[in-house]
Amino acid sequence: MARVHGKPVAAAHPLLTRGLTLESGKAWQLLAAREWRLSSADAEAVAAVLARLTAPLPTRRGAAPQARATDRDRLLQRILRTTVHHLDAGAVSPPAAALLAAVARALLPWHAAPNPPIAAAAPRYGTVPGTTDRAAPPTEEGEALLPDLAALFTALAATSMPGAVPLTPPVEPWQARYVGRFRRHTRPAPGVWAAETVGCPECGGKDGPWTVICDWRRATLGCPCGAVSHEHRLAFSEICLVLPET
Ligand SMILES: [Zn+2]
């Protein structure tokens, strides 16, 4: 059973790895068929995430078990944050964005652990629905994902050799229905977050149900009134990380 400060807590929800299994499988197939060679933006993102995936734990002499546990969770949190950064920067290709989104979803329990977002308006993903308690992140389950992810990101990085012409495979658009609110976050100053709820440009509705259509180049939000909005200015993570896993 998971423990926080030595006390057993309710078992954390299982990691949302369905998307990751799917996207990793697709990526391996594309690599085997030599149908994906990274663009320079993809290569930059893959290298950054790979560096996080393979980062060693800090060596601490005589560290308390609690400090060691925090280090392990911090490593997972850094992978998540780097992944979301590159997903939302908008430079990567659709297949890379799909993979990064799947990695981020699987690592959502580390969104606020060990370090919660510092401002009230910061994004809140991965909280346990219907509770105010923060479940302990399933550290071992998260760590168990890393060897396969490191192997995949290493193989992807290897396609970006000098002189290699980038080859980006097509990605099928996806569609989802979402009952709830989308929040757009901005960071007006270091450590300061602002957030606003996205409303329909026609009727002002905020609660959906929204019809989300996304091809990983852009996402559109369809409102029940019939309006379709492209100008919501939501980052991919602000859309895909709030959707329930299907
Ligand atoms: Zn509307």
Brief descriptors of the model:
6 helices; disordered N terminus; two-stranded antiparallel ribbon; binds zinc ion; single chain; 246 residues; alpha+beta; globular; 4-stranded antiparallel beta sheet; 2 domains
Would you mind describing this structure in some detail?
By secondary structure, the protein is α+β, with helices and mostly antiparallel strands. The protein has 2 domains: 3-157, no CATH class; 174-240, no CATH class. 37% of the residues lie in helices and 13% in strands. It has helices spanning 18-32, 40-53, 65-88, 94-106, 139-157, 236-240, and strands spanning 3-4, 7-8, 174-178, 183-189, 192-197, 210-214, 219-222, 228-229. It has a 4-stranded antiparallel sheet with strand order 3-6-7-8, with no helix packed on it. Strands 1-2 form a two-stranded antiparallel sheet. The longest helix is centred in the first third of the chain and has 24 residues, at 65-88. Residues 1-9 have low confidence and may be disordered. Bound molecules: zinc ion (ZN).
Question: How would a textbook summarize the main sheet?
Answer: 4 strands, antiparallel
Helicity, as a percent range: 25-40%
Task: Name the assembly state.
Answer: single chain
Percent range for β-strand residues: 5-15%
Estimated radius of gyration = 19 Å
Alpha-beta content class: alpha+beta
Would you identify the regions where 5 or more consecutive residues have pLDDT less than 50? 1-9
